[in-house]
Write a structure and sequence with these properties.
- The protein has about 170 residues and is α+β, with helices and mostly antiparallel strands.
- The chain folds into two domains: about 5-85, no CATH class; about 90-155.
- It contains six helices and four strands.
- A hairpin with a 4-residue loop joins strand 3 and strand 4 (about 140-145).
């Protein structure tokens, strides 16, 4: 099943594969904990969940899941595994670490305009100056100031020579 057809969505705080795998591990841990409680209580269904992380809590609230229900647990795990295996992945390099607010806006934009389950990996390339470099499996976009200067080198040299003549 394609991740986007499951009816579930990723919260904005899940940016890349690392976040996704952390979320998947935590749901499986909750599932194991509830199963252990069920066995210890001789068949009585557990009434409370263990403490959830912020990322799992946002995922549960966004998708209106009840993790006490085995069906919801399995549905969430299946969705996250499908996303891990089939979602488009993109790599974006910056000259410095982007802020969490910026990454939230970037993730929001990519999920609304490119694909609802896209996963973003952030890299650092200090030499690019400003801007970014975007890579997918088969495309490369250099949107950096460094590349812009390289592309405009002849124009810049001409302008410098004109200013020397005028001065």
């Amino acid at each position: 099943m394609a991740p986007e057809k499951s009816g579930l969505a990723l919260p904005i705080v899940v940016v890349g594969t690392v976040d996704l795998n952390r979320l998947l591990r935590e749901i499986k841990k909750v599932q194991a904990s509830l199963q252990a409680q069920l066995l210890r209580s001789e068949g009585h269904v557990p009434q409370a969940l263990p403490k959830l992380s912020q990322i799992l809590d946002e995922f549960v609230q966004l998708n209106k899941l009840d993790l006490l229900q085995v069906a919801d647990q399995k549905r969430a795990i299946r969705f996250l595994e499908d996303v891990r295996d089939h979602a488009p992945k993109i790599h974006v390099s910056f000259s410095a670490d982007p802020s969490p607010q910026f990454m939230s806006k970037l993730t929001f934009w990519f999920r609304n305009n490119i694909h609802p389950t896209i996963l973003i990996t952030v890299g650092l390339q200090p030499g690019i100056g400003a801007g970014c470099v975007v890579r997918t499996a088969n495309k490369y976009f250099d949107l950096s100031l460094s590349k812009s200067f390289q592309d405009s080198r002849e124009l810049l040299v001409q302008q410098l020579q004109v200013s020397e003549v005028v001065a």
